[in-house]
């Protein structure tokens, strides 16, 4: 019995030891001739000693207790996995050395897949050093270049981008490209996400650690480029006495159809910049938000006033802080006022005096906004957040909505209900809502359709929003970019995310008093993220869908239902809906699952390919439709 027991444990350990020995032999062969591998020889020697120890333990494995046997099995498994990865890495390094491009390897990359560092090689994600971008005229698109350093010394390298050329026309790259470095940041799940996108430093110098990888992110603004194919190069030039240069080609195909100057979709993100770590550069944040399609702004700065026991306004209404906000933000879009504060006097907020004073202030407020050049379409009242979240919120909303309806029926009312709200409550709210913004999970995915119908039957606009946790791991394509496509799928006119920058929390570090919601980081100004860039792209794509739809409608009036029209209508229908599935409607979800980040990268590749395909179809369809008009 003892002999049979010993044999049962020795045999599997012998196989694993044999596997590790063969892997080590292969690593020795692959690394032979590589420069700067003195460090590897030490690693190999250490592994050979461990193998001797494994053999000794395996010989007596039948006498070992269960814990020690498990530790032996785990140690062998870890070494085997490590050497399988090393073989992939050393093979890539050897190939690079043989083509005399040592020690830097450049690979274009899917910008929306989580950057995996050297795991990109292990997972066989290497591509050619050819960056290709397709964009509508006036659109901003992103690309990524992975930079691998196989050497055993950390290098500093300057990133230089050639001017863009098209025939005899040349445009300086500084007018087109912004270079960022992808930075890993801690998350609420106590791991890391390659999310932050700070601009490269003043000198455009990037640090390339030894035997490691970095991702260079490029934002390409096509406003300065006419339609056509533009060529450039990205040069990585090491800061050494004898500099070495590594290049990647950069091609931008600008389609003939143009992005509208005004976004077709509303976009709210509750950016309380004045209370956040962006408060020192609020003006820069406004420009950043506008550049990313943010055109709805929320504020609690309302007119302040006192009233007496009869409800009469006492003295002048104080618009000072209100006016500062309105002047800054109203040129960029719609303002949502949170109007429950700013009124003080005797009695509670349900008394006659409060009622009278509130209506008086509302009427004076409207006149004041009109004098500032802000009309009814440029603002709405937002008295309660997420009615349905807890008991009593619907009643509070109705209380204030009725006061505004009494003061001036033209004042728009906004509400963002969540799934707990009842159909009866929604029906009661219908006369007092002009803009509905239902929660995505509660109404647009696999439930809530019956409640959504109630909103659709009203005359109000319908937007949507979401505030899921674990935000730094939420798919830039699935959650952030595709929410615009989901809005198109449901025929909605607005989207929203919590949030741009709404607290004093520091998004660079492990969250201590908040979750990962913040979309941007602070630096010398606003620091972007992959998620924030993805929001902008979704906004732009919704606008191009709107352009295609308008073009179809115009042509149908003249030429009827041609083949070109049918093709365009398919894109607008089934085609767009297939992308909308990424935002919570398909089985793959928007956060890492059992397959981890490796699985997320594969899924991101599939989704990115699908979006690239339909974008090209939109461009070709617009060209075909325009040609049919001539």
Return Rg in Å. Answer: 30 Å
Count of alpha and pi helical runs: 15
Shape: globular
**Which structural class do the helices and strands define?**
alpha/beta
- Binned strand content: 15-25%
End-to-end separation in angstroms reads: 91 Å
Side-by-side strand order of the widest sheet: 2-13-12-4-10
Uncertain segments:
4-10
Give the integer mean of the pLDDT values: 94
Biggest sheet overview: 5 strands, mixed
How many DSSP E strands?
A: 26
Query: How much helix is in the residues?
Result: 40-55%
Oligomer: single chain
Identify the notable features of this structure and list them briefly.
630 residues; 4-stranded antiparallel beta sheet; alpha/beta; 41% helix
Description:
This protein is an alpha/beta fold and 630 residues long. 41% of the residues lie in helices and 21% in strands. It has 15 helices and 26 strands. The strands form 8 sheets. A 5-stranded mixed sheet has the order 2-13-12-4-10. Strands 1-3-11-7 form a 4-stranded antiparallel sheet, covered by helices on one side. Strands 8-9-26-25 form a 4-stranded antiparallel sheet. A hairpin with a 3-residue loop joins β25 and β26. α12 packs parallel to α13 (530-559), α13 packs parallel to α15 and α14 (563-580) packs antiparallel against α15.
């Amino acid at each position: 019995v003892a002999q049979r027991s010993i044999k049962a444990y020795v045999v599997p350990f012998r196989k694993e030891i044999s596997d590790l020995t063969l892997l080590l032999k292969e690593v020795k062969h692959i690394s032979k001739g590589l420069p700067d591998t003195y460090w590897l020889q030490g690693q190999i020697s250490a592994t050979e000693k461990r193998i001797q120890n494994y053999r000794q333990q395996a010989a007596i494995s039948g006498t070992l207790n269960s814990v020690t046997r498990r530790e032996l099995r785990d140690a062998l498994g870890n070494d085997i996995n490590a050497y399988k990865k090393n073989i992939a890495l050393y093979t890539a390094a050897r190939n690079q050395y043989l083509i005399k491009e040592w020690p830097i390897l450049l690979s274009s990359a899917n910008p929306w897949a989580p950057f995996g560092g050297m795991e990109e090689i292990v997972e066989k994600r290497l591509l050619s050093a050819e960056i290709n971008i397709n964009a509508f005229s006036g659109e901003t698109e992103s690309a990524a270049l992975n930079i691998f350093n196989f050497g055993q010394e950390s290098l500093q390298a300057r990133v230089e981008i050639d001017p863009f050329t098209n025939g005899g026309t040349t445009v300086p790259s500084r007018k087109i490209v912004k270079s960022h470095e992808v930075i890993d940041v801690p998350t609420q799940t106590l791991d890391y996400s390659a999310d932050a996108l700070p601009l490269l430093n003043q000198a455009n110098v990037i640090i390339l650690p030894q035997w490691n990888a970095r991702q260079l992110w490029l934002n390409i603004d096509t406003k300065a480029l006419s339609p056509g194919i533009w060529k450039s190069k990205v040069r990585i030039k090491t800061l050494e006495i004898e500099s070495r240069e590594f290049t990647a080609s950069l091609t931008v195909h600008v389609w003939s159809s143009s992005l509208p100057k005004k976004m077709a979709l509303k976009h709210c993100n509750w950016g309380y910049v004045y209370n956040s770590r962006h408060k020192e550069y609020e003006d820069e944040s406004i420009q950043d938000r506008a550049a990313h399609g943010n055109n709805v702004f929320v504020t609690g700065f309302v007119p302040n006033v006192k009233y007496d026991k009869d409800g009469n306004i006492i003295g002048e209404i104080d618009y000072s802080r209100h006016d500062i906000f309105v002047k800054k933000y109203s040129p960029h879009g719609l303002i949502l006022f949170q109007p429950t504060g700013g009124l003080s006097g005797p009695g509670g907020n349900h008394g006659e005096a409060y009622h009278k004073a509130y209506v008086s202030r509302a009427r004076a407020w409207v006149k004041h906004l009109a004098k500032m050049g802000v009309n009814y379409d440029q603002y709405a009242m937002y008295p309660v957040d997420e009615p349905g979240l807890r008991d009593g919120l619907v009643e509070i909303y109705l209380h204030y909505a009725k006061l505004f309806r009494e003061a001036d029926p033209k004042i728009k009312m906004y509400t963002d209900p969540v799934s707990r709200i009842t159909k009866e409550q929604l029906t009661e709210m219908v006369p007092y809502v002009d803009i509905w913004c239902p929660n995505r999970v509660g109404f647009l995915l696999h439930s809530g359709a019956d409640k959504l119908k109630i909103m659709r039957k009203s005359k109000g606009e319908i937007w949507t929003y979401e505030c899921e946790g674990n935000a730094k791991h939420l798919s830039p394509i699935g959650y952030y970019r595709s929410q615009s496509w989901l809005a198109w799928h449901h025929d909605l006119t607005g989207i929203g995310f919590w949030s741009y920058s709404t607290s004093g929390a520091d998004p660079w570090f492990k969250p201590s008093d908040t979750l990962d919601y913040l979309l941007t980081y602070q630096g010398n100004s606003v620091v972007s993220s992959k998620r924030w860039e993805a929001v902008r792209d979704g906004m732009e794509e919704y606008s191009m869908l709107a352009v295609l739809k308008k073009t179809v409608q115009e042509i149908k009036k003249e030429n009827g239902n041609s083949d070109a029209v049918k093709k365009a209508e398919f894109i607008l229908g089934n085609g767009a809906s297939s992308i909308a599935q990424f935002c919570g409607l398909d089985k793959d979800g928007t956060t890492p699952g059992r397959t981890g980040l490796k699985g997320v990268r594969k899924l991101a590749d599939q989704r990115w390919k699908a979006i690239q395909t339909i974008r090209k179809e939109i461009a070709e369809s617009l060209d075909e439709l325009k040609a049919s008009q001539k």
